[in-house]
Amino acid sequence: MPTHSLAIASGGFLGTLARLLIHYFSPFQESAFPWVTLVENASGAFLLGLTSAIVCVSYRYAQQTRAFLCTGLLGSYTSLSAFSIELVHLQQSPNLFFGYFFASLVLGVSAAWLGVVAGRSGLMRRSKKC
After folding, report:
1. Taking CA 52 as the corner, what is the angle to CA 46 and CA 58, rounded to the nearest 5 degrees?
2. Residue 57 in contact with residue 120, Cβ under 8 Å?
3. pTM for the complete prediction?
4. Closest CA to 70 of 125, 115, 103, 38
5. Residue 83, Cα to own-chain centre: how many angstroms?
6. Cα–chain-centroid distance for residue 99?
7. What is the reported pLDDT for 127?
8. Residue 34: CB partners within 8 Å, gap ≥ 6?
9. Which of 9, 10, 72, 103 is most buried, taking the most CB atoms under 10 A from its CB?
10. Rg value, the chain, Cα
11. Percent of the chain residues past pLDDT 70, beyond the cut
């Protein structure tokens, strides 16, 4: 197995473990609204935006590092499939369905944008010091 695949698999293991721990320790496990997935996906979107601005688009980092962080770790930490099945389960409650859908969309895109902005501003500050 190439090192690129091992990097993704290793990151995937850690991202899945982080997701499991968040679910395990969440005070919202019994809620009708899928708070845990919303928090995971929004925080993951922020971290992916930040990471992509710093690591994933920078050529000074090895492909394995980008694969580990962006594809493996953060790809497994966030979950479109969990989001999708939770929407299916909420279809009997239109208020929860649309609330979750729009909250996920707005928070996810906003968090990703904030992550990219934070990452780029950090890169600009670092480049001025050099």
Report:
1. 155
2. no
3. 0.84
4. 115
5. 12
6. 20
7. 53
8. 82, 83, 86, 90, 100
9. 72
10. 17
11. 87
